[in-house]
Amino acid sequence: MSSVSNLPVLRGLPKGPQIWRKIKAPMEYSHFAQNLQPSAIRAVSKAIHGKKVISFAGGMPHSATFPQAELTALAAEILESRGAEALQYGQTQGYHPLLETIAKYLDGRGVAGVKPENLLIAAGSQQAIDLVARILIDPGDLVLMESPGYPGASGAFLNLGARLEGIPVLADGPDLEALERIVKRERPKFFYVTPNFANPAGVLMSVEKRRHLVEMAERYRFWIVEDDAYGEIMFEGSTADVVPVKAHDHSGCVIYMQTFSKTIAPGLRVAAIAAPVKTTELLETVKQTADMFTSSLTQILVNEFIVRGHFAARLPGLRQVYKSRRDAMEKALREHFPGTRWVTPKGGFFFWLEMPEDTDTQALLAPALESGVAFMPGNCFFVGHFDAAEAARTVRLAYSRESEADIAKGLSELGRLANRLVGAVHG
Q1: pLDDT tens-digit series, residues 57-68
Q2: What CATH number belongs to 81-308?
Q3: Burial (CB count within 10 angstroms: exposed 0-12, middle 13-18, buried 19+), residue 386
Q4: Model confidence, pTM
Q5: Cα 190 from Cα 145, distance rounded (Å)
Q6: Which CATH superfamily hosts domain 4-66+313-426?
Q7: What is the dihedral of CA 142, 148, 152, 157, to 10 degrees?
């Protein structure tokens, strides 16, 4: 996997005050700290923060979708009527009424039999990934994930000493034949998968593959770690298409993660993990030393937002907002990116592009940023063994944050720069 330091935007950035040089005695950091894997996405986000940039880099929700009026009214009511509870320390596992609400919500999504004791509330899905990784990974363990896949997950796994191997992503989800070849040779600790509108590839895993994956995990005895951040952001098809892999799990082999960052607001930092009771108990123990508990105020706020019907009521409009932006991006891609291939996403936040051969999308990033457009070169999403030349010509574009007008404007400029780069390569 490409390291963050290889991204052109990071070369030459100021590194901050070198305080350590003033210390006379040598000071050492742990081996863990010295081998941490930084996030390429967060690095680009930091580089453009506060600047006037049209950003297709991060999967950020459009700020106009945030339910500010409803959340403001609810927060005022909560602080007025039960402020002491909302501002006090909470239970590590989570606010019990929210656990009950999420169990009922998951039942409506097709995941039957989940009880509050099967759940833990995390401070966002990134913490959920980290907590799950901490209770599963020993240094040297083999961990499998989609390739291209989410760098926030691969970074968390690598930080704990995992050996990563990537599973190619096809139009209907991960290549399960490739997965089976690996698990026959060596049992992995788990397979991390994003079945609904995968980040970054944007594809939807077929229902048949979901069933087959669970059967394979039961046969070869490995965990499935399912990350369902985008299942509610569906534009086409039926709800049956996005029923979680967890719904097919009858043996307790699937650890399921779901977040409200994309559907309510990321600043609330509320996500949930559903797992067997023993797994939830271990997650609770490891969270005790991470941050003790997720904010009581935001948990109560999310619970009230759901039980009063605001959550269900907003989903149709939310889907339409992102569908319109997807359509605007695809229109601009057809106009400005000749010779580039993609699969039209049926939901989620991302397009995954394969540009003409020999294109180096990292070389495109610096001039794009100078022109006020940000995106993510695709090579930072690949793990394990992969074709570096093929990875170098891929791009992830997020259509979630920008307006339709800015999508058109930004892709016009990015297309101009990309076509100039391709022309220079091919003479």
Answers
A1: 999 999 999 999
A2: 3.40.640.10
A3: middle
A4: 0.91
A5: 8
A6: Aspartate Aminotransferase, domain 1 (3.90.1150.10)
A7: 10
